[in-house]
Design goal:
The protein is α/β, with parallel strands linked by helices and 583 residues long. It is built from 21 helices and 15 strands. A hairpin with a 2-residue loop joins strand 8 and strand 9. Helix 7 packs across helix 8. The chain is globular, with a radius of gyration of 29 Å. The protein starts with 12 loop residues before the first helix and ends in an 8-residue tail after the last helix. It binds one RNA strand of 76 nucleotides through helix 3, strand 10, helix 12, strand 15 and helix 17.
Length: 583
RNA sequence: GCCCCCGUAGCUCAAUGGACAGAGCGCCUGACUUCGAAUCAGUAGGUUGCAGGUUCGAGUCCUGCCGGGGGCGCCA
């Protein structure tokens, strides 16, 4: 292993101060990005001074090495440059290091075969960051990535035709957590539920409810073809009979369907809001599909499409000629029976989002079985002269619900369903959220109910919450024993490896938030939470916090523990979970 | 038939093209007279579905197979 000790070039003191102040002031800059900038500048300077040949340098990337002995950050830029520079990576790396400025947060850097540049943070600087985290408090981790841009996150949006089944829980948790993370990253976030209160399914729902209602009154009426078979409709029908008797059978059928549909939708939404609330999921707005037809959005969109020559009549239906814009096939917008299809609503809805409400960015959270709809939607945006890049569809795979290894089908129409509310009350909100959040979006989740209940006491979420409660307990103990907490504690006393590992982990939160937002993959947050808790538990084992024999060190450790509590609490909040003072 | 996703330890899953592929659960062994043992430390467990290719370097990218799921509707 070849090691080159960093020989720092003289840089003006001013530069050093500038570098340091960025972090001490808790500004929204990522340490990682700063190191990237330092390396890029050093590379350019090496070229300018003739230590490296002229070539167009690759983008500098740094990562946290898996092996801590390789430092806090490492970069492969020298290896990436080898071909371009026609030089050995190790030599390139050494040249870059010769021009790396001395910065207060860096302890040094080294070149390691086959050409990694490994960077070590200054440990006394690290210890001082405890104060930075403490000062930032609940805002620690916030970024200015969004720069106040308005983003809408639309999630759940299940048809309002009955209780939310458990499959919808994944959508809810994903969307809610993404919204939390986007807000932390500096976006102005609006959370929306799209209520499909128009169209064919809703009509089937109304007809089914009417049939159940009539049955409850002793009439021999069958459910409609492909109607809703769930037992909940029988319960609701009984409710209606108790409240209104034969009222709905005494009016014309069409009128009764309209009235019962309206009643059923309201009933459903009330339950959904309650059940989602139990899961910690809330919305800023419940947007009615029907309103798109009532307030003219749909008409405007049709005019635009017609004006651009993108509508054509065929077989009695109105088609959107997506193929004219490069789409794979044309799509029916208005059926031959004169009713608009779901695609018509979706175009109008997105027109409303982008044009009428002016969101800079729209994120739709869809289950993977809607994947085929993504290119259609993008083409539709193109047709409306909206940049399709402003729409991101987050697709997630399905949840396969099992009970003792046997699959339970989740179908509202078939009626064999496990509801979100049941699972939340059986397993617990925090455990459900954690389990659903831990998997990457593309992974199918096998969720065994029996296993989930049984494992919930072993669930990682309790591991994280326990760390939080443990810290709370330290502070209770401190108060009982008359400790006066010193906010100005001497942080330079924090030199133990377990202390510094914990500090390092605290400092990673901004990067984790950045990662989850850049990739729209909140599952990274759960792994961070676990790692952070583990780091604390190890610190707790190795470092007695309250020690009358060493009060100065105790004060420093209390500050570190307070910072850890703050960050753990923040992470739990971002994931939508409770941070218990005791458990 | 065409398109998309997945295949990693017994199970459930991680791993921005990097260094020796990691956690949790489960199994086994230790640690509570000291701030909470819902914890910690350690052991065992792998041909990353298969075969090629690109690359200094592949679980990751490309091609072809095998297996699982999803999509290709005047349903949403």
């Amino acid at each position: 292993m070849l090691v080159v000790i960093l020989t720092a070039e003289k840089r003006s003191a001013r530069t050093c101060v500038d570098q340091r102040s960025m972090f001490l002031e808790g500004e929204l800059t990522l340490l990682r990005d700063d190191i990237v900038a330092l390396l890029a500048a050093a590379l350019r300077k090496a070229q300018k001074k003739g230590d490296l040949p002229k070539f167009d340098p690759p983008a500098v990337a740094v990562e946290h090495p898996k092996d801590a002995s390789f430092g806090d950050y490492s970069s492969n830029v020298a290896m990436q440059s080898a071909r371009l520079a026609r030089m050995a990576p190790v030599k390139i790396a050494a040249a870059i290091l010769r021009h790396l400025p001395q910065v207060d947060y860096l302890a040094g850097a080294e070149v390691v075969h086959p050409g990694f540049i490994n960077i070590h943070l200054n440990e006394s600087w690290l210890a001082r960051q405890v104060a930075v985290v403490r000062r930032a408090g609940p805002t620690w981790g916030n970024l200015d990535k969004g720069q106040g841009r308005r983003v809408q996150v639309e999630y759940v949006s299940a048809n309002p035709t009955g209780p939310l089944h458990f499959g919808g829980a994944r959508n809810a948790v994903l969307g809610d957590t993404l919204a939390n993370l986007l807000a932390a990253a500096g976006y102005r976030v609006q959370r929306e539920y799209y209520v499909n209160d128009a169209g064919l399914q809703i009509r089937k729902f109304g007809e089914s409810l009417l049939a159940r209602y009539a049955q409850a009154l002793g009439r021999d009426v069958p459910l409609p073809e492909e109607g809703y078979h769930g037992a909940y409709l029988q319960e609701w029908a009984a409710e209606l009979v108790r409240a209104d008797g034969e009222h709905y059978l005494q009016m014309p059928r069409a009128e009764a369907i309209t009235a019962l549909t309206e009643w059923g939708v309201q009933r459903t939404l009330r339950d959904m809001e309650r059940d989602l609330g139990q899961l910690g999921v809330r919305f800023d707005r419940w947007f009615s599909e029907k309103s798109l037809y009532e307030d003219g959005a749909f008409g405007e969109v049709m005019n635009i499409l017609r004006g651009r020559g993108l509508l054509r009549e065929k077989d009695g239906a109105v088609w959107f000629t997506a193929t004219a814009l490069g789409g794979s096939k044309d799509e029916v917008i208005i059926r031959s029976n004169g009713t608009p299809g779901y695609f018509a609503s979706d175009i109008a809805y997105h027109y409303d989002k982008f044009v009428r409400r002016g969101f800079d960015w729209v994120i739709d959270v869809w289950a993977v079985d809607h994947q085929g709809h993504v290119p259609r939607m993008k083409t539709a945006l193109q047709a409306l002269e909206i940049d399709p890049a402003r729409l991101t569809v987050v697709l997630y795979d399905l949840v396969k619900l099992l009970r003792n290894g046997k699959e339970v089908k989740l179908s509202k129409r078939a009626g064999d369903m496990v509801t979100l509310a049941e699972v939340v009350s059986e397993v617990g909100k925090d455990a459900v959220r954690f389990m659903l959040l831990t998997r990457s979006n593309e992974a199918t989740i096998d969720f065994d109910l029996a296993l989930a209940v049984q494992e919930s006491s072993e669930n990682p979420v309790y591991y994280v919450q326990y760390a939080y409660a443990r810290i709370a307990s330290i502070f209770r103990k401190a108060a009982e024993n008359g400790w006066q907490i010193d906010v100005e504690a001497d942080l330079s006393l924090l030199v133990h490896p377990a202390e510094l590992r914990l500090v390092r982990r605290l400092l990673m939160l901004p990067e984790v938030i950045d990662l989850t937002v850049a990739r729209l993959q909140p599952h990274h947050l759960t792994y961070y939470a676990r790692d952070l808790a583990a780091e604390f538990h190890q610190f707790y084992r190795d470092c007695q916090v309250l020690d009358r024999q060493n009060e100065a060190l105790s004060q420093s450790r209390l500050q570190l523990a307070a910072a850890a509590k703050e960050v753990l609490g923040r992470v739990l909040a971002l994931m939508g979970m409770n941070a218990p003072e005791r458990m």
